Amino acid sequence: MLLIEPPELFLRGEGVTRQVAPLGLGYVGAAVRDIADVRLLLPDTRAYVGREPWVELARVIAQERPDVVGLTCVTATYAVARRVAEVVRSVALDALIVLGGVHPSTLPEASLDGAPAVDVVVVGEGEGAFRELVLARQHGRSTFEDIRGLVVRDPEGRARRTAERPLIADLDRLAPPMRDGLVWPDDIQPAFYQSIVTLRGCPYRCIYCAVPSLDSSRTRFRSPENVVEEIAWLQAQHGLSYLFFHDSVFTLNKRRTLAICAAMAARGLRVPFCIQTRADRIDAELMQAMCDVGLHQVFFGIESGDVDSLRQIRKEMSLERISEAVALVKAFGVRCSGFFMVGWPWEDADAVARTIAFAISLPLDGVSLFSATPLPGTELWELSKTSQLPESIDFRTPQINLTRMSDSEYSAAFTAASVQVDAFNQRRMHEALALAHAPVATNWQALADVSA
Fold first, then answer.
1. Domain 2-161 top-level CATH class
2. Residue 447: pLDDT band by 50, 70, 90 thresholds?
3. What is the dihedral of CA 318, 323, 324, 328, to 10 degrees?
């Protein structure tokens, strides 16, 4: 069995790698490794240099001779996943090809119809459905209508959904994500083992995010003990020098976050780590507890510096609250970065300018700027009234104009905003380098030295 992450950097053939473990695919692999021989094909972790990446992929897939192939994708990688499925079909004619991930979960019928080489689409969480598919395949079955959480083809070739599969209630029952069994293990770096997720779902309803449509607003948490057990395992097996919590709002449940920190401290697990969260989900008590076990950087999804835009995207918090949260993080000597988006349907050039002015007024260590892009499964997708997306999505450029401005006006506004953000980031980088050579290091620098 082969689980494949669609390539991006690999296709350029420039020897550049991406060292992030695909945890969703890893959880699916862990769910079936007791009943099947599972291998992970992660092209973007290989430093491939050459002009025939698709030929190389076809060669290795043929060599693996998979009976079942699982592919995952988001909207930005759906086109490549479709191409990978075609390659699989060309070299493994009888393989069962299964597609899952965020994009097929939000547009399941269209994803199956748009990928003729794919046999089945998994909707939502894939562990249970994929396991049942593998068992059915092992028993010689070719139809899967009785397996919940799928989109299959009926005898006439039309996409049809099976019964809905309930969410996994107890995340502690899941096996830790598979991180071994790599087809190409030679170029794997330590960063591959530095990612972790501790919850699923989100209670917020931000209009640009597909999470609410995937699993409603119900948030499920791994227990602190379960989380820390995985951290301890990663430390013992791979000598963690850094850790990235990939939860969209790591501090969503304050009591649980404090319990994770306490459990880490009790086991002597002090490792530099970074988190993503909201500005209204952090306070001094949390900061102190996290710093005690190694907090190095906080990423805030701030999104806008325009009050009206914050309200309309349902990121309902004041600019004052955001400023206070950033100041709090910096007061603890922790790095702080912010994500911002411009180009909402109601915005004009002045609104874009307000966001950038606010962003560069904050004592952030870095600002990331994106163009609002409607993704399937989001309210923004419905507001945009579009059914088309570029095959290669780049959030750092305005590929789609949703604003009140003409295309040329929005392009000019976004370009001007990018110039300001780039200048800000350059300035902050030079300041950080100068600070690194100062006689007295701050807490975050000491942690950065540990993680280097």
1. alpha beta
2. very low
3. 150
